[in-house]
């Protein structure tokens, strides 16, 4: 985990998407669930040179096509690894971060990210050593 952004609960996740892009990252794919898909986000990703791997979403009266369903299924196989990170954080800290100030929440979540990165590093080292 390289970057993160902590916001109030009233801010939608897609509003903080631009902050998370890392110019040092060599992979130009953006993986996200369907909540991030919009014409504005797609246009911004294309303008910045990123490839969108965002899930498609159906709307009332216009369900997903078979091709879009297959694409979302294929994307899910990669995205599940990211979702495991969030599941670990929920299991480790509970569903909510209970802090009075946003700055305290940011530090708390930052430490969770640090612990996750150290645990992942140790696991990778154990596998490499065996």
From TrEMBL:
Region described as Disordered: spans on this chain: 56-76
Describe the location of the Transposase IS4-like domain by residue ranges: 3-117
Recorded hits in Pfam families, A to Z, give:
DDE_Tnp_1
What name goes with this protein?
Answer: DDE family transposase
